[in-house]
Each structure stands twice: as structure tokens, then as C-alpha cells.
Amino acid sequence: MISTRTLPGLAVLAVAGLALTACSGGDPLADTTTPDAGSETIVVGSQDYYSNEIIAEIYAQALEAEGYDVDRQFRIGQREAYLPEIEAGTIDLFPEYTGPVLQYWEPDTDARLADDVYAALQDVLPEGLRTLDQSEATDQDAYTVTRAFADQWDLTTIDDLAEVTVPLTLGGNSEGENRPNGPAGLKNTYGIDVGFTPIEDGGGPLTVKALQDGDVQLAIIYTADPSVVKNNLVTLEDTKGLFLASHVVPLASDKVDDDAAAIIDEVSAAMSAADLVELNARSVDEQLPAAAIASDWLADNDLG
Length: 304
Description:
The protein is of the alpha/beta class. The chain has 2 domains: 39-139 and 246-300, D-Maltodextrin-Binding Protein, domain 2 (3-Layer(aba) Sandwich); 143-235, Osmoprotection protein (prox), domain 2 (D-Maltodextrin-Binding Protein, domain 2, 3-Layer(aba) Sandwich), CATH 3.40.190.120. The protein has helices spanning 7-24, 50-65, 79-88, 98-105, 114-124, 147-153, 183-190, 205-213, 227-230, 258-270, 273-286, 290-300, and strands at 42-45, 70-73, 93-97, 129-131, 143-146, 169-172, 195-198, 218-220, 233-235, 248-253. α2 (50-65) crosses α10, α2 (50-65) packs across α12 (290-300) and α4 (98-105) packs parallel to α5.
């Protein structure tokens, strides 16, 4: 299938070819076209999470700058909603996070460190999927408490929660109740019992407010979320590896050819953990759309 991107170029080349033939008497059937950047539209998806949407937009713009057609399918939902679509082949490129996506396909994995997690992920990928290079950039799930609660109970690590004598409630997206780092995982790994309250904003302002109001004492908030510093929250150290290493990693279908993969690998190599925090802060503090944030980042890094 020839994409709409190629049609104007082909028309121009055809005219040029006829003109050349008239002047030189060359073969009118000679192929004067150049290799195309890809013959099918690449569907790029994202989670229903602003940080993930920014990364997906960076992928999309980087591909478009090199002549690829891109269909954006952003803000799909959480992992339980979009991974079946990726497995079914309706999404071709998606920014994921190594540890959480590994646990989706292999809940009992023993891998914890970055390289081990990345290697283990290769062994559980469904047919037709591959990972591209993982990035230095991380957005780690973490248990988070308010500064006041941490000071009250002298909390610095997850282990310290065992000394808290009041009932504990964990807040997070509803699917988090049954994930490996939900209440059952906390009990199995640290021996700590917690209740669960669903808060459907992916660790966003509703989650922060629930912490500050005391409706929950513990929440799962990503480490790259600027709200952690802005609201003086405390990320508890995970001494026993309940949360796996979580580096940004692109999942790609067979439709992502080698040239497209090289473009995305270049993006991954350029993106740092500090970059991700800054990108997130621009979204939260400046209220900029993902497209503008992505465009600026690509320009700053001489990409796209």
C-alpha cells in the first residue's frame, strides 16, 4: 500500500521523468523514484497519563520529520486497556516502562535491576512485538506519603511502615489494587497490611489531595512527577525491590521498520531522567500541550 505521503512526490517525479525522456531519449520506464520512508501509517499510542503522552508525541514528531505518516492514538487508558490493543496489532509504537510492563506479562519475575529487567522483557514479548533501546529516563512507581506523615512516624523506607500503628490506606488507580505492587504485593514483600481506595487520576492532583486531606496515607506516585517536590511529598525507599526498575522503553510492531526504529532509538539515547522531570514540569506548571513540549525538546536536542 502506498501512503498518501508519497503521492505528491510520485507525481512530481513522474513529470520530471517524462521531461527528462523528451530531452534525452532515455528509457521512459526507468525508475526515478527514491526509497520511501515507509509504506504504511505508524500508529503511535500513549497511556492516559500526561507524561507518557509527551513521550509518545516526541516519537510521533520525530518520525514525521523523517517523512513517516503517523496516526496518534493517545490517552487510551492504563495498561489493562491498551496492551491488548498492542498485542492485537492495532498500535505500532508505544512508550512503556520496563518493570511494570514486564510484571504485566510475568507477574512473578525475579528480575529487579535495569539490565536484568530489560533482558527478561525480551523473553515474554508476544509474537510480533519487540522492544527498541531502553532509555536512561525513568518514571518509577513509588510509595509516597506527605512530609507531615513521614515526620510523625519517622518514615524513610517502606520497611518503616511496619511501625505505624494507625490503619493505612493506599490510594491509586483502581487496577492498582490487583497489581504486584498493590496491597497484596506490599503484604507479601514487607508484611504490611493496607486497605485500598481507588483514585482514578494516575497519581495526579486528586491523589495528592487525598494524601494531604488524610483520606489515604500512602499513594503510588511516579518519581518523575513534579508534584512530589512541589507538594513536599516523601518517596519511601524500596529496600526489597517491590518496584522493578522502570526505564522508558518503546514497544514496537513489525510495521516499525529499521529506519524508524533508528529514529526512536536516537530519541531514547538523548532523553535523560532529568529531562523527563522537566518535561513533566512544563506540562503541569506551564500548562503547555504535549505537542509544544515535544517540539521544543526535539529542537533543543537537534532531533526532528
